[in-house]
Design a protein that fits this description.
Strand order of the largest sheet: 6-7-8-3-9-10
Helix content: 10-25%
Distance between the termini: 48 Å
Number of helices: 9
Number of domains: 2
CATH class of the largest domain: Alpha Beta
Structural class: alpha+beta
CATH architecture of the largest domain: 3-Layer(aba) Sandwich
Order of helices and strands: EEEHEEHEHHHEHEHEEHHEEEEEEEEEE
CATH superfamily of the largest domain: P-loop containing nucleotide triphosphate hydrolases
Largest sheet: 6 strands, mixed
CATH topology of the largest domain: Rossmann fold
Bound molecules: adenosine-5'-triphosphate
Strand content: 35-45%
Length: 357
């Protein structure tokens, strides 16, 4: 079982809405997940990520709309008919069964011939690096090991889709980093279409091919992590992925062309085809640079605060009443600028994104 027996599936979610009583928690979700993709639902607590994942698995109230696996709608079919594997945050291993029994359980339920069960269990445990622990009980394993067993138990039945609901959140920080790489390797080896639910942007960014950023039961944006980071569709996405300066202002036209004006003498040129009127400008702290004093087009400001973050220093700079966060790479022994110090900033317009929300 080193690769999928069947070709990986495409998942299409169309106009999916779901309510708990009168509360609508998914509001018309549309998503297309490609075969073999490692896809993330990323969003804050309560945004509906788990509800959406559970709807794919067939748990929870029946949604309106469609969930298609390779074009076939599965809404309305019972969970065990979907052949979709789910790994929960809490592992949910049977405490009274050994590791091998836990992994064998799903095969026995599916009436797989007993002669095939042993080799399949061993192969699944080998895939997650737990073959030596087959006769232990869950209570004799660390959290990370239990999570590996939970994974083995899910993949042993060769599901068409792998659903992971915050699978690493109970592990300590170092183990999480290692496990996410292991997960990625496993996913690539199996070639299985996988959805990973997390509220941790670093986790999603490092291992997922694409992400859907969710808020309030609505998909806010879909794309590769770097695409979404570089081109946030709205303020929520800009703030949720990384740190962003979001300047309020308007696009104005003048003899020199169009620019974004947020008062405070801060004008940034924008494309000629941008409509005039109210807008916001998103600028990441790492894309603003300190310039030599008096350099052309530089903005002058005052250091309001400085935070040492290890590899960099995050400054808050007051530019005529508008505060801008600016990250500067730290090198050994580099002196930090002091509060009240005069600085000049360079803001490359190509690094700024105009949004209208
Ligand atoms: N069984 C339920 N009954 C009523 N409301 C529910 C139920 N399950 C979830 N909800 C509500 O649905 C909304 C979405 O919850 P969901 O668990 O999908 O969010 P989430 O993004 O996965 O958050 P978290 O990261 O905290 O799990 C929340 O407002 C939650 O309170």
């Amino acid at each position: 079982m080193t690769t999928m027996q069947t070709a990986p599936v495409q998942i299409d979610i169309e106009n999916l809405s779901l309510s708990f009583g009168k509360t609508e928690v998914l509001k018309g979700v549309n998503l297309a997940i490609r075969p073999g993709e490692f896809f993330a639902f990323l969003g804050p607590s309560g945004s509906g990520k788990s509800t959406l994942l559970r709807a794919i698995a067939g748990f929870g109230p029946n949604p309106k709309g469609q969930i298609k696996l390779d074009g076939q709608d599965i809404v309305g079919s019972v969970p065990w008919q979907r052949n979709v594997g789910m790994v929960f945050q809490s592992y949910a291993l049977w405490p009274h069964m050994t590791v091998a029994k836990n992994v064998a359980f799903g095969l026995e339920e599916r009436k797989v011939p007993s002669s095939e069960i042993g080799p399949k269990v061993l192969a699944a445990l080998e895939l997650v690096g737990m073959a030596d622990y087959a006769e232990r009980f869950p209570s004799q394993l660390s959290g990370g090991q239990q999570q590996r067993v939970a994974l083995a138990r899910t993949i042993v039945v060769e599901p068409r889709v792998l659903l992971l609901d915050e699978p690493l959140s109970n592990l300590d920080a170092n183990l999480r980093v290692q496990m996410r790489q292991d997960l990625l390797k496993l996913q690539r080896r199996l070639g299985i279409t996988t959805i990973f639910v997390t509220h941790d942007q670093e986790e999603a960014n490092t291992i997922c091919d694409r992400i859907a950023v969710m808020a309030d039961g609505v998909v806010q944006q879909i794309g590769r992590p770097d695409e979404v980071y570089d081109n946030p569709a709205n303020s929520f996405v800009a703030k949720f992925l990384g740190t962003a300066n979001i300047l309020e202002g308007e696009v104005v036209a003048s003899a020199e062309g169009k620019s974004f004006d947020c008062g405070a003498n801060l004008r940034i040129p924008v494309d000629a085809d941008e409509a005039t009127g109210k807008a916001r400008l998103v600028v990441r702290p790492e894309s603003i640079e300190f310039a030599a004093d008096g350099a052309n087009d530089s903005l002058s400001g005052l250091v309001a605060s400085a935070e040492f973050l290890g590899g960099m220093v995050r400054y808050a700079i007051d530019v005529n009443g508008q505060e801008l966060l600016v990250d500067e790479r730290h090198t050994r022994g580099k002196k930090r600028m002091e509060k009240g110090e005069n600085v000049a900033l360079k803001l490359d317009p190509a690094q700024a994104v105009l949004i209208r929300d």
